Amino acid sequence: MYHSKVIMKRHIRILCVIFFLTILVIRSSFALTNPPIEKSFLVRDSKRPVFHLGLSLGMTSYYGDLANNNLKVPFYYRYGIQLNVERDIFKATRLCLNFFGGNLYGDEKTDSRTLNFKSSILAPQLGLSFNFLHWARKGKLSNHFSTYLFVGVEALFFSTSGDLKNSANETYYYWNDGSIRNLPETYDSQDKATIIKRDNKYETNYRNLDIDNVGKVPQFGFGVPIGLSAEFKFNNGIAIRAGAVYHYTFTDYLDNITAKSIGSRKGNAATDKFLFTHISVCYSLPFYVGRPMCGTERMNTHITRKKPRKKFK
């Protein structure tokens, strides 16, 4: 559990650094690409901000080869954090650059096997979000309420480990009577084996433990995140968003159980997936898009600003 806290703090620090660097980059790029223009030659077609930042906190749920019927870690250990950077490209469409970090847990206990894992994931994403309430504008509803469909692609960087030993470096052996002991269940070990308990520290990195004779376990993959969310906007640029993102991945190693696994560890051929349910706080940066006047508009503005000629008596 201590290791999980360290990983969580590390993810929070990384995402905070990315958050502040993103603000600096957006401000710098906006200043470079939008030089000062005389106010008389600037027409703002809309007072809508085009850049949006958000921070999402939530919980992950795992769907893979394990039944996950014996999970006992606290729910807050299955945390997820995501930084959202969004840019309006059309009235109802945003280009999104997101950074997700979190933990996945799985634990199965049946008559034939007892398996567990923890996977720490970092996933940058690129995608589009569509406000499908935009085309149903009625009254002032759309001014404060939006619903978004997000579709994107992501790169998955993960590290999978298991809780196979306790703090005294004793390996867990699961006996038929339901107990966990420090020796295998044999006739000679009936009186020698002592009952021990799991410490839920997930100390064994599966990449370094070739259980299934496949060499080093892959720690990279791709995925397609698909999300739905609802957003309520306040007048000060702040919004509250709630939603869920389903991560369809193209890797079967998030839980280290695959169709190539040996013996009772053997899984199915389907890839692993997970769900991230979240609540977000969003802020619309006060940057607006303006366009310079065309030649005719500029000339007309110049003419209307000419001082009247003085009349001579």
Explain this structure:
Helix content is 15%, strand content 40%. With 313 residues, the chain is mainly β. The chain folds into two domains: 240 residues, Porin; 36 residues, no CATH class. The strands form three sheets. Strands 2-3-4-5-6-10-11-12 form an eight-stranded antiparallel β-barrel. The termini are far apart. About 11% of the residues have low confidence.
The Cα radius of gyration reads 28 Å
Low-confidence stretches: 25-45, 291-304
Strand content: 35-45%
Question: Which bin fits the share of residues in helices?
Answer: 10-25%
Strand order of the largest sheet: 2-3-4-5-6-10-11-12
Total strands: 13
Q: Spell out the helices and strands N to C.
A: HEEEEEHEEEEEEEEH
Described by its quaternary structure, the protein is single chain
The DSSP helix count reads: 3
CATH architecture of the largest domain: Beta Barrel
Topology-level CATH name of the largest domain: Porin
CATH top level of the largest domain is Mainly Beta
Domain module tally:
2
How is the main sheet built? 8 strands, antiparallel, barrel
- Provide the structure class: mainly beta
Which descriptors apply to this entry?
single chain; 313 residues; mainly beta; Porin; 2 domains; eight-stranded antiparallel beta barrel; two-stranded antiparallel ribbon; 3 helices; 15% helix; elongated
List the SSEs and their pairings.
Elements: H1 2-33, E1 42-43, E2 51-63, E3 79-90, E4 93-109, E5 114-131, H2 141-144, E6 145-162, E7 173-174, E8 180-181, E9 204-205, E10 220-233, E11 238-249, E12 273-284, E13 291-292, H3 295-304
Antiparallel strand pairs: 1-13, 2-3, 2-12, 3-4, 4-5, 5-6, 6-9, 6-10, 7-8, 10-11, 11-12
